[in-house]
From TrEMBL:
One Pfam family hit: SpoU_methylase
Recorded superkingdom: Bacteria
GO biological process: wobble position ribose methylation
The name this protein goes by in its record: tRNA (Uridine(34)/cytosine(34)/5-carboxymethylaminomethyluridine(34)-2'-O)-methyltransferase TrmL
Amino acid sequence: DYTNTEKEHYFLFGKETTGLPEMFMRQNPEKCIRIPQNDEHIRALNLSNTAAIVVYEALRQQGFPNLETTHTYENDKLK
């Protein structure tokens, strides 16, 4: 739960090849999150994609504070 904007949140990501150290994971199971994936076809998510998913979800839960969720253009370039 990342809805409390007064609380500082930190995210640690391990290497794409090895992840975070097993000892760290075992010592902090309540603070670890897992992004579900089909392990049959995917070895691992790219680290930058994983970071984007996690940060997006945290910001989504906070209502995207200080970020524009829509944008209007003066000149519509698609017309």
